[in-house]
Automatic annotation (TrEMBL):
Signal peptide: none annotated. Oxidizes proline to glutamate for use as a carbon and nitrogen source. Transmembrane segments: none annotated. Residues 35-488 form the Aldehyde dehydrogenase domain. This is Bifunctional protein PutA. In the C-terminal section; belongs to the aldehyde dehydrogenase family. The chain holds residues 543 to 1049 of 1050 of the full protein.
Length: 507
């Protein structure tokens, strides 16, 4: 059963629960506990985090290295079964997971449900990838008298460094891929959301994945630095800001060790173009979802809306109507559409951004925050009129949408401006004209291009997700090439003639 008891009752019981996160294998002096508070109510502690020390990082990587060959030798089928057992364990702990998504990360219930769904989808998809790719060998063509085969293996110890905005799905996704490929994993969750990560790792261990194979190392940037500077590390899968990805890349390059694999999924400056053939109601629904669902805290979220000038007044009036109806407040209240942002720093940065635009004379629509939001990190949903995406200097990770008008004959210029920003994550288009779609598609330099729908919520396997340029390295999460980036390819070539002793490994 997905839910053991009525969900509401169970969530109510879990409201008082205190959680904790600590390194999987603790060593020596346990050190200080840092409180984890609710984004929606900073006076409310959800649990505590104990950061990994430098010694613990070193030991964890050593333990991972020692066990990895055995994990790799298990083969794809056995690893797949363990990942599927972990997926089952996640589903059996639905209430605990939803509760932590809400209390630690400030998610609304629908967002929390989607988060659990995506996490389970990742586990099952990568389990199947383990079966598809790691149960070889695969014979390669060759001349008579020679046998060639290809096998895939784990690279060694992989680090995963994950963000707070998908504290379960993007914590477990890259780790599951690395595990599927036969790597040991050391996982550092975002400092804001270690509790749900600790629960996820415990559930994986209960499902039978050995503790040394999948280790949790909580902490902030300093712990990330300990991890990524270790020369024994085979690779890093990172999701977070472009700036942090660039810093990790430099750290990896400076190590005197094997050349590391680096997989980064980073930010975006995502645009949507709406032309005068679009359906206004559909545009309104999709713009509001893309910009304000999850309080705009998705790297896929819409930041810059371009509306063709002759329909702009009507469309913006409708968007504003829907925007005024958004319910902002406590994410545990089922009526809430827009919850808090993650922490006081995020709130301050967004408010600075809005204040600066206001000072520059931009027209700004801002919602009033209800009094009930006073104890938390809430940012009023905001829409700012701009001339162009070129006026945006950095990603504004929250419920702030920028809009601009464009004359129809300047569509190509708009696309050039969007591309010139250098990010390449998502792009939306609302148009019912085929030639427009073809033009925009041919110019798009993004990983995920969405037509006549919202531009968030990529589904594992159906919509592999990830960007280009400043938005990341690829390959796409949940896609057919992802797990391979965590693997080595080994070719064995055997002389099967008499001179070679008639050897055959495939026989
Ligand atoms: C992120 O926000 O870090 O398509 C990426 C989506 C999600 C985005 C995840 N899969 O909205």
């Amino acid at each position: 059963p997905l839910v053991r008891e009525p969900l509401e009752k169970r969530l109510e019981e879990l409201r008082g629960r205190h959680w904790n996160a600590a390194p999987t294998l603790s060593y020596g002096n346990p050190g200080e506990m840092a409180p984890i508070t609710q984004p929606q109510d900073l006076s409310h502690e959800v649990g505590t985090r104990r950061d990994a020390t430098e010694d613990e990082v070193r030991l964890a990587i050593g333990r991972g290295q020692a066990i990895q060959p055995g994990w790799n030798a298990l083969g794809g089928e056995k690893r797949a079964l363990l990942l599927e057992a972990a997926a089952d364990a996640f589903e059996e702990n639905t209430a605990e997971i939803l509760s932590l998504c809400q209390r630690e990360a400030g998610k609304t219930l629908p967002d929390a449900v989607l988060e659990l769904r995506e996490a389970v989808d990742f586990l099952r998809f990568y389990a199947n990838e383990a079966r598809r790719l790691f149960t070889g060998p695969f014979p390669l063509p060759g001349p008579t008298g020679e046998e060639n085969r290809l096998t895939f293996n784990g690279r060694g110890v992989f680090a995963t460094i994950s963000p707070w905005n998908f504290p379960l799905a993007i914590f477990i996704g890259p780790a599951a891929a690395a595990l599927a490929a036969g790597n040991a994993v050391v996982a550092k969750p975002a400092e804001q959301t270690p509790l749900i990560a600790a629960l996820a790792v415990r559930l994986c261990h209960q499902a039978g994945i050995p503790e040394e194979v999948f280790q949790l190392l909580p902490g902030a940037g300093e712990v990330g630095q300990f991890i990524t500077s270790d020369p024994r590390l085979a690779g890093v899968a990172f999701t977070g800001s472009t700036g942090t990805a660039q810093a990790i890349n430099r750290t990896l390059a400076a190590r005197d060790g094997a050349i590391a694999t680096f997989i980064a999924e980073t930010g975006g400056q995502n645009a949507m173009i709406v032309d005068s053939s679009a359906l206004p109601e559909q545009v309104t629904r999709d713009v509001v979802a893309s910009a304000f669902q999850s309080a705009g805290q998705r790297c896929s979220a819409l930041r810059m809306l371009y509306v063709q000038d002759d329909v702009a007044d009507e469309i913006l009036r409708m968007i504003r109507g829907a925007f005024e109806a958004l319910h902002v407040g406590d994410p545990e209240d089922l009526a809430t559409d827009v919850g808090p942002v993650i922490d006081p720093d995020a709130k301050a940065a967004l408010e600075r951004h809005v204040a600066r635009r206001e000072k520059n004379g931009r027209s700004v629509w801002r919602r009033e925050l209800p009094h009930s939001t006073i104890k938390g990190c809430f940012v009023a949903p905001t829409i700012i009129e701009m001339d162009s995406i070129l006026d945006l200097k950095r990603e504004n990770f929250g419920p702030v949408l920028h809009v601009a008008r464009f004359p129809g004959h300047q569509l190509e210029q708009v696309m050039e401006d969007i591309n010139s920003v250098g990010y390449g994550l998502t792009l939306g288009l609302h148009s019912r004209i085929d030639s427009t779609r073809r033009l925009v598609e041919s110019m798009a330099r993004v990983g995920n291009f969405y037509v006549n729908r919202n531009q968030i919520g990529a589904v594992v396997e159906s919509q592999p997700f990830g960007g280009e340029g400043l938005s990341g390295t690829g390959p796409k999460a949940g896609g057919p090439n992802y797990v391979m980036r965590f693997a080595t390819e080994r070719v064995v070539c055997i002389d099967t003639t008499a001179a070679g002793g008639n050897a055959s490994l495939l026989a």
